[in-house]
Amino acid sequence: MGRLVMGAWRKIWRFVRVLMIFSSLVTLSVFTPIFSDVGVLALDTFSKFTLKTPTTATAITVLGGGLTKKNQDIALNHYSQSRADSAIAMYSQQPLPIITSGAESPWMHEHIKASLPHAAIISDNASMNTCENAIFTAKLLTHHELTDSVYLVTDRYHMARARRQFAKAGVATIPQPAPLAMPTSWTNIDNNLIHSRRTIYEIVALARDIFHPQKNCRTANQITIEEISTPRRQPKVFSFF
Fold first, then answer.
1. How many whole angstroms separate alpha carbon 231 and alpha carbon 226?
2. What's the pLDDT tens digit per position in 93-112?
3. Residue 224 phi, psi dihedral angles, 5° rounding
4. Which of 15, 69, 134, 179 is the most buried (most CB within 10 A)?
5. Whole-angstrom Cα distance, residue 93 to residue 86?
């Protein structure tokens, strides 16, 4: 009997040691590019198996990522600017109407127009979260008689959650990830931690959206095209991580 008990304790201890080693490796990986790369792979795999990707689209939708202050003036933060720059680059290959979505829209509109003066830009100024980005974009597509498929521009961590919300709103998406301004690097721990935090945030947010959907998401019937198209007078300055 004693041998059986000792054998059971040895198995439990071996399991605990393996678990401790695994936890240590995961903890250490947040300081390297490995954690964010594996996280994005998991998010992309989720999208691959749960969503359909169209082959064509009739618009480019770029999602705002926050605002900041520069010399006391409101400006795009590096997340929003990177996404706007990616939309500009994509327009050179696919000159389609660009939909800017979020309270950042007036600043993204100005930034994009500076490089693409002849581009058709449609603004959703009203959305305050990802589900409203999707719902209000769908309403704008219908209003402008465009098909319900778009190239979606946001960062690679946000992409899976955004694509799921757009699919729920009836809009199929072709992902166009925008890079973060601070790339991962084996020698830059601070940058790696920023990417790791983005990964953790988006995995948790995606799980929340699936199991406990947001209740602060307005429907298409609760807002008019005029309200969607009207810029906010005093937008909130905010930034993700």
1. 10
2. 999 999 999 999 999 999 99
3. -100, 165
4. 134
5. 11
